[in-house]
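Technical annex, item 7. During the second reporting period the consortium partners agreed on a shared format for inverse folding records so that results from different sites could be compared directly. Each record opens with the tokenized structure and is followed by the designed sequence. A conforming record, contributed by the partner at site C, is shown below for reference.
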């Protein structure tokens, strides 16, 4: 646990030191759970968004994009259920005065039990090697069976209690499991209470006539209320999808773990409209497709797992999370939900307007069912950044800090370095910059010794360093250094674009799906 905490501190520190993420309004001591993306962070975030958009919209003939407004008519949120049901179960510790999400306390406890089981499995795997039958071990080893049964029992009881709104039983479960305040160890808890997460605001020139509005807590509803507009104007045929990226806002009382849980965050989601009765096959399709998208980035298959929901939201008939192994354990990265026809029917009811599709093949009108995929862009940023940040011991015993970002996402694709600041080398380096910047985000660095400049580029996650030296003046070749291997090759300046393109093109990365 201490090692994980140290890793997480390094992630936060590195993000600030190298211009990826700053605390918002830091000159005024900051604002809790609000962050600014700095010069390198904004590039990495943009690249993740574009990688998602290309795979989701550009590569699918039946998915189009949308950019709906943040402010929506307040009845939207009544119809969606957010006014009445968008709550978190909160619990306070009477001694520490700290506030926690009750469900997260229980889920974290269950996850620790799961990790105990995983530890036993890993030990056996190391002991038996290739002869190890993991499935047989999981079902026959008494200790593992006990751990997993206990975890399942806890998660199912929590799901039942939350689903029934039985907050007394949630507290009873916390007490029975002897869950303590993570910071102080105190078990002196208050009752569990529900807290609505929406931010309120007003629209109007005067306080007397102003309309009460909400900052949207999710981007999905902008898609649902525009369903018919998009379908008719785009002549879309079911099945089809509408994708959107954008800001959402939640008044998280328990906001922690850096950018994992923020009050202002960005979502990348797609609502896929299907015939009623076909939603489950599309649900399975998108589970597989979305996991393959994540795996294409090469962050390690072992860092992902599916978690099926015990407690379903009021709109869903199936739901699963793709969880990622963050520095603080496995947590939700993306949700895939079968939302049924709840949203469109609710907006029909509250607006008085039909939101139906005429299916020419069936010769009938119906309200489509919806399968949703929704990934947090900020969480995706954290997953990529934290996994990529590594400390390496080199052959000579020295160490280097390297940010092994997937090259396709790296903020800067190459840094061009003149060996010295004279003899015409800077001029050649800047000419290379001028040629490459039409296709890639590239940087120029002439300060310090070349070794230090390499280390700086490593820490920024730059895949290539291109060094211009005196031989360049003779034969128009340069040294290109690869970040991950530190291997150096002598190549022609004319070949640089093709070499970089081969490593960073979205096509090459997405074809791994």
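Designed sequence (site C submission):
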């Amino acid at each position: 646990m201490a090692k994980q905490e140290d890793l997480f501190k390094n992630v936060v520190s590195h993000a600030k030191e190298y211009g990826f993420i700053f605390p918002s309004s830091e000159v005024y001591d900051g604002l809790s759970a609000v962050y600014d993306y700095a010069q390198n962070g904004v590039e990495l975030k943009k690249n993740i968004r574009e990688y998602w958009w290309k795979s989701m919209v550009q590569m699918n003939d039946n998915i189009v994009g949308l950019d709906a407004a943040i402010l929506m008519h307040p009845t939207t949120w009544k119809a969606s259920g957010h006014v009445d049901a968008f709550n978190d179960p909160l619990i306070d510790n009477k001694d520490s005065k700290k506030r926690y999400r009750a469900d997260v306390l229980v889920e974290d406890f269950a996850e620790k039990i799961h990790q105990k089981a995983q530890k036993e499995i890993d030990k056996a795997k190391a002991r038996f090697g290739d002869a190890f039958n993991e499935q047989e071990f999981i079902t026959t080893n008494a200790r593992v069976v006990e751990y997993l049964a206990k975890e399942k029992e806890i998660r199912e009881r929590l799901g039942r209690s939350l689903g029934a709104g039985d907050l007394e039983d949630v507290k009873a479960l916390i007490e029975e499991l002897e869950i303590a305040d993570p910071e102080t160890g105190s078990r002196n808890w208050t009752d569990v209470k529900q807290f609505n997460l929406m931010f309120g605001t007003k629209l109007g020139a005067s306080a007397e006539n102003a309309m009460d509005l909400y900052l949207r807590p999710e981007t999905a509803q902008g898609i649902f209320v525009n369903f018919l507009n998009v379908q008719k104007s785009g002549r879309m045929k079911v099945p089809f999808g509408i994708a959107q990226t954008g800001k959402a806002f939640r008044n998280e009382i328990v906001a922690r773990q850096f950018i994992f849980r923020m009050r202002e965050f960005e979502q990348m989601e797609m609502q896929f409209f299907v015939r009623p009765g076909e939603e489950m096959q599309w649900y399975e399709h998108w589970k597989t497709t979305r996991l393959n998208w994540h795996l294409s980035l090469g962050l390690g298959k072992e860092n992902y797992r599916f978690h099926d929901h015990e407690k379903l939201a009021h709109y869903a008939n199936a739901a699963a999370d793709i969880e990622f192994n963050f520095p603080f354990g496995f947590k939700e990265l993306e949700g895939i939900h079968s939302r049924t026809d709840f949203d469109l029917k609710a907006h029909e009811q509250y607006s008085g307007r039909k939101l139906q599709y005429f299916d020419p093949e069936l010769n009938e009108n119906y309200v489509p069912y919806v399968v949703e995929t929704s990934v947090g862009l900020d969480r995706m940023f954290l997953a990529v950044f934290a996994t990529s940040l590594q400390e390496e011991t080199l052959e000579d015993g020295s160490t280097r800090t390297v940010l092994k970002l997937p090259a396709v996402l790296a903020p800067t694709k190459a840094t061009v370095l003149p060996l010295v600041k004279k003899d015409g080398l800077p001029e050649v380096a800047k000419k290379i910059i001028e040629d490459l910047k039409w296709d890639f985000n590239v940087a120029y660095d002439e300060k310090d010794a070349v070794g230090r400049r390499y280390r700086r580029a490593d820490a920024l996650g730059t895949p290539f360093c291109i060094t211009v030296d005196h031989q360049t003046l003779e034969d128009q070749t340069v040294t290109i250094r690869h970040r991950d291997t530190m291997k150096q090759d002598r190549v022609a300046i004319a070949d640089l674009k093709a070499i970089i393109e081969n490593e960073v093109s979205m096509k090459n990365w997405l074809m791994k799906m």
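Residues 102-128 form the longest helix (27 residues). The longest strand covers residues 329-340. All partners now use this format for quarterly exchanges.
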